Amino acid sequence: MALSQGWVKRYFKAFCKGFFVAVPVAVTFLDRVACVARVEGASMQPSLNPGGSQSSDVVLLNHWKVRNFEVQRGDIVSLVLGPGNVEEISK
To answer: Does the record's keyword annotation contain Hydrolase (predicted)?
Structure first.
């Protein structure tokens, strides 16, 4: 019984160490480097989602290109507007 509790304790401790390292690394990567997004609807047809509303495409949003102003003609840019940003744009 004591042997099985020791194994569980070591497993839980290793899991916690990995979890508390992996989560901040993953969040930083998704925030600063790139993230995956799903394109649904007809707004980007025919370039993305050519099958119509029944299908969806998955794209990689590259944050480095936008941050370094390396956007070129033909690139697709994604914008996220919050409530405070809408007022600034409408002025």
So the answer is: yes
In a domain, 11, yes or no: yes
Instruction: Report the C-alpha gap between 22 and 15 in whole angstroms.
Output: 10
User: Can you tell me the mean pLDDT for 34-48?
Assistant: 77
**77 close to 66: Cβ distance less than 8 angstroms:** yes
Domain-embedded: residue 26: yes
Q: Which residue from 45, 28, 49 is spatially nearest to 37, judged by alpha carbons? A: 49
Q: 49, 42 in Cβ contact below 8 A?
A: yes
- The domain total for the chain is 1
Is residue 87 included in any domain, yes or no? no
Parent domain of 29: 2-80
8-12, 18-22, 51-55, 68-72, range with the lowest pLDDT: 51-55
Average pLDDT, the chain: 76
